[in-house]
Amino acid sequence: MAYTIEAVNAMDAETFGRVFADVAEYSPWVAAAACSKRPFANREQLVDAFVQAMHAATPSRQRALIKAHPDLAGKAARAGEVAAASREEQAGAGLDSLTDAEYEEFTRLNTLYRERFGFPFIFAVKGATKQQILAGFEPRLHNDAPTEFQEALRQIERILRFRLEALVLEPTGKDQ
User: Fold this and answer.
1) Catalytic residue list
2) Cα(148)–Cα(176) distance, rounded to whole angstroms?
């Protein structure tokens, strides 16, 4: 279901939290912080509130947000044990229909990445192909830890934007 910005602004905090809880993967605190910034004039302000909440968090809370994301094409995804939005995004990129060789390559790269950085490889997969996602691993494996931490947050910003764009309508016609 998609909501108008007026409907978002009219939600009580509990409803807002329930509707937007998984926009930031298993991290409802992001939605709670964004809720406190209402009213929003438009969807862009809503997106900004989520992004600001993420960036205002402590590094340990940001790390927990990053770690809440599943491995791309990982065991949890294959078993359907990821948030609905993640499942849909990964399926849209073809990650739910990998060959055995592709699955092994994702598993190998996910493992290398986790061993190097201590958190999962984050990639905003909407609109990407599995080949583009695989190609994204290699250059990022060469980053230093602080650079990659910031890149993970940038990717989460993109994920937040995609998910909020799916949930909240932009006004059309003369209301713009």
Assistant:
1) 69
2) 37
